[in-house]
């Protein structure tokens, strides 16, 4: 059976950035673009060049991708030619192989919002698309408010699509801008367009989640004949978000009737990276991943009901609609279960710790993890802290040094030029091989700027560890994430520190306390201890 | 036009409690039941009496509700009569007017999981439902794995429904237990059942969100003829959750084709309580409300794109699918570097600052916002810090007090019992009305636990502000969020603080610095200054 080609268009970097509180830096955009390319989307919309400085910077530094890099903009304004529209020029100057231009297709918006005539709008669409084609670009026309426009005046909305089609647009994207159209109406509208002569393999669908149906609306359009699906990772986007590609991609690849009917650029191997990609984006945004997210959530394959959990052990298909491994996720069965321990042994083996099934430390480790997680710790990402915890219970953790005490001071006052300046100073006292060592550091970087109390503590801790000094000299702090979370009944601070060394190793550690400095120090200590363990093992 | 009656069935207290990490206490269940009743659902499923101690306790103390209180259980087991099944007896003994019993309708599960014959299962359904009817209860049959069963053997699945119908069940609930059925197939299956003679007004739909389509699946069933919709508040539930009633109810009440076709028990006034009800549940669960939630999320009507924000000012229907007030939510036009001057003036007007369009401060405010956002600030959520910034540029910000300097010390050492303990101490020096005031506080809470340096600073700052002391006495810190972000070329810390006061006001402020304590202090200062501005304006 030949499968029809279905195209995936990602707009995380453009529409996704419309999420309240989201503003990607250029390096973050590059990182996300690489992840999208690895996943196998066909188009990566990078932003609106000229409208936003980081968007322009991204196109200047854009990575080479297999996916078609696309710039977003709007159709030319009335009263000037496409060649002389400076807003459009900024978009085409980004030099991307494809350009997507938003334009009106709802007559009410044409006359009310733009204040131009129906014909002027058709001409703006036609001329803008023709201009892109003359520049050798792949042109996409994004028909704003398409479904509302079609309900109001089907003839005019269809004429807008026809104008862009005749001018040479590769794709006509049906945008449900307000997010209020029901999937059943989306499906019927796409059917009507195809009946009116618009080819389905030129139609794209762009939905929003305002009634929690963006995924269903996209699939209704595909079932009716549209062949391009737009969306964002984790459903980022304005208001309630865009159609969530993290849910749409596995549905299209794994579920019927789509899997047998369509071919996408997403390989089975790439799909296994989906959960990781979703978490990476949350990580960049410092968001707590949504446990209940379809396919990729930590709870997506968690079986709590007693009835379900016991049936799952007999036959996973009884309560799972797909195998969680296909999207890189995993099944969670209550800790008490036998499955908990075999899973733990597998994790320890991955760290090079082979543990016999009857080792009495195994249930103890599970208990400690459970108790710590109730306090606010999280070992999902902090693998190095988890390894230290397991080694402690297994009796495989030497006490390299002991921290006797520390003190850190943050001061802010006027300097002699009457400017407010701040300075942090840390004293750390450790006992190494029976010897007490006092170290003091301040938080100024090479430029003389204060980098804060955690920086000062980190430097003081690493200043003199006696015989271990050589081992930690090449350590550096790569990232530092702080979250307020629930520990028992009170809010506590969870700090995750990512470290790296000259041998190319990178590792993450966690600290939890109501005191943010203390939580940071705990994570720092774990980072140093893990490095000492690894270098000792390697020796 | 007569509208058909559509029934809403809530299972927050039963299936919702299958959410990972959720366990309601009896008083919490009572509070949720009252809220559901006020909202206007028709059925409240309270739990499984006998299976869970808090479920049994809830039925003992259940509040009087207009909604039909329903107990959940399972059909009798094979080899005993319904009258002699102790599991079923525990359910009926709860004395609820309605009882919903789950049973098998997928032949594979009958033979594989239960290990009984097809006929024995039909007899279990028939006898159990007849038993409920003989006790004078309204009977509901919950057909587990219905859609998978119907795909495998439509005849047998339909026979299970028929058996319960003939025995007197009021409702036959089609349950998509694994959450993997596409809405289009749900719709076709319901159509097939009605064509096979099962009345649509006896059919209910119970979906799960494993492909992010639980809402769409429920609506597909309604469009095909089902007349009872099951779900949970905020989409709680096992794995990815149940169909979200918080999204379904407004869609059924406000959106077409449903609003004109169906009548529910939810009044327009009750619907205005939807956002509050959703937040109340998050509050009970101590969860941060999902900003992007359909209808009720804080971002659901937030317009960030410059293009959208200026159109919204002219005509809200351009970018809103419903009036946010209908569900008790409100519109937000956040400040961000994508927003224009019209949106700025509107935002200022909402803060009580009427500014003429030609005021030269307007472009300056936009410039400062842009420059600050490049440094790592974010004003999307920190509206109070934005207001202070705007007032500063407009010359409308009094200097209430000046912070001359501060110093905070964090110390960790062994106490006399040889336990590691930490303590923070802060000194803040302010000048108020020409008078210098030194305040010192430590970070211990009432239980004697260290709450960290920001807590100590906050207390020291609020300790003595002279004439302003009375104004800030009722302020409290509600939430504290930290993220590492890019400020120019270096990583900086962004702190957002949510504050509230006794008058029910709540506001958010932001601080940015490489030094986390300093960033927190800046956000704290803004919080205090905003409160002083507001109380002065109010006077």
Automatic annotation (TrEMBL), chains A, B:
Enzyme class name: transferase
One GO MF term attached to the UniProt entry: 2-isopropylmalate synthase activity
Top-level taxon of origin: Bacteria
Family matches, as InterPro entries: 2-isopropylmalate_synth_dimer (IPR013709), AIPM/Hcit_synth_CS (IPR002034), Aldolase_TIM (IPR013785), Citramal_synthase (IPR005675), LeuA/HCS_post-cat (IPR054691), LeuA_allosteric_dom_sf (IPR036230), PYR_CT (IPR000891)
Keywords: Acyltransferase, Amino-acid biosynthesis, Branched-chain amino acid biosynthesis, Isoleucine biosynthesis, Transferase
Sequence ranges assigned to domain Pyruvate carboxyltransferase in this UniProt record: 6-272
Gene3D superfamilies per record: 1.10.238.260, 3.30.160.270, Aldolase class I
E.C. no: 2.3.3.21
Annotated CDD domains: DRE_TIM_LeuA3
Reaction(s) catalysed by this chain's protein: pyruvate + acetyl-CoA + H2O = (3R)-citramalate + CoA + H(+)
Pathway of action: Amino-acid biosynthesis; L-isoleucine biosynthesis; 2-oxobutanoate from pyruvate: step 1/3
Gene Ontology BP, a term: L-leucine biosynthetic process
A Pfam family reported for this protein in Swiss-Prot or TrEMBL: HMGL-like
PANTHER family: (R)-CITRAMALATE SYNTHASE (PTHR43538:SF1), ALPHA-IPM SYNTHASE/HOMOCITRATE SYNTHASE (PTHR43538)
Family: Belongs to the alpha-IPM synthase/homocitrate synthase family.
The protein's name: Citramalate synthase
Taxonomic placement: Bacteria, Pseudomonadati, Pseudomonadota, Alphaproteobacteria, Rhodobacterales
């Amino acid at each position: 059976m030949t499968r029809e080609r279905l195209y995936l268009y990602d707009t995380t970097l453009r529409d996704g950035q419309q999420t309240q509180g989201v503003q990607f830096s250029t390096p973050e955009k590059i990182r996300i673009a690489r992840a999208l390319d690895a996943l196998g989307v066909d188009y990566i919309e990078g932003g609106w060049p000229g409208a936003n400085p980081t968007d322009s910077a991204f196109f200047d530094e854009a990575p080479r991708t297999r996916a078609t890099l696309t710039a977003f903009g709007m159709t030319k304004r009335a009263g000037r030619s496409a060649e002389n529209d400076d807003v459009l020029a900024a978009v085409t100057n980004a030099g991307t192989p494809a350009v997507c231009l938003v334009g009106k297709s709802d007559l009410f918006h044409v006359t009310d919002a733009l204040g131009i005539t129906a014909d002027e709008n058709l001409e703006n669409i036609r001329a803008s698309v023709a201009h892109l084609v003359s520049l050798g670009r792949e042109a996409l026309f994004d028909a704003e408010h398409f479904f509302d426009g079609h309900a109001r005046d089907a003839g005019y909305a269809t004429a807008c699509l026809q104008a862009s089609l005749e001018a040479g647009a590769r794709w006509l994207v049906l945008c449900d801008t307000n997010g209020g159209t029901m999937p059943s109406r989306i499906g019927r509208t796409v059917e009507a367009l195809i009946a009116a002569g618009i080819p389905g393999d030129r139609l794209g669908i762009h939905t929003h989640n305002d009634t929690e149906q963006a995924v269903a609306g996209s699939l209704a359009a595909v079932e009716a004949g549209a062949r391009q699906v737009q969306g964002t990772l984790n459903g980022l986007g304005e208001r309630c978000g865009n159609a969530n590609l993290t849910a749409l991609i596995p549905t299209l690849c794994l579920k019927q009737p789509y899997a047998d009917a369509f071919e996408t650029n997403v390989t089975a191997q790439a799909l296994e990276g989906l959960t990781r990609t979703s978490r990476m984006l949350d990580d960049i945004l410092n968001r707590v991943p949504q446990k209940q997210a379809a396919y990729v959530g930590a709870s997506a394959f968690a079986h709590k009901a007693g009835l379900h959990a016991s049936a799952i052990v007999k036959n996973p298909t009884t309560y799972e609609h797909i195998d969680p491994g296909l999207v890189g996720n995993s099944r969670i069965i209550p800790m008490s279960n036998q499955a908990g321990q075999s899973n733990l042994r597998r994790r320890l083996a991955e760290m090079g710790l082979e543990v016999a099934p009857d080792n009495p430390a195994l249930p103890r480790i599970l208990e400690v993890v459970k108790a710590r997680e109730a306090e606010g710790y999280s070992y999902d990402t902090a693998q190095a802290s988890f390894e230290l915890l397991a080694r402690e219970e297994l009796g495989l953790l030497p006490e390299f040094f002991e921290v006797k005490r520390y003190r850190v001071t943050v001061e802010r006052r006027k300097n002699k030029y009457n400017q407010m300046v701040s300075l942090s100073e840390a004293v750390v006292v450790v006992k190494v091989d029976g010897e007490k060592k006092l170290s003091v550091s301040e938080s100024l970087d090479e430029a003389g700027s204060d980098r804060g109390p955690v920086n000062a503590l980190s430097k003081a801790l690493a200043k003199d560890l006696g015989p271990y000094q050589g081992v930690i000299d090449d350590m550096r702090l790569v990232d530092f994430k702080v979250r307020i979370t629930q520990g028992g009944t009170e809010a506590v601070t969870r700090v995750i520190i990512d470290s790296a060394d000259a041998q190319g190793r990178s590792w993450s550690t966690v600290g939890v306390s109501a005191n943010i400095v203390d939580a940071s120090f705990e994570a720092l200590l774990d980072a140093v201890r893990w490095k000492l363990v690894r270098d000792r093992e390697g020796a």
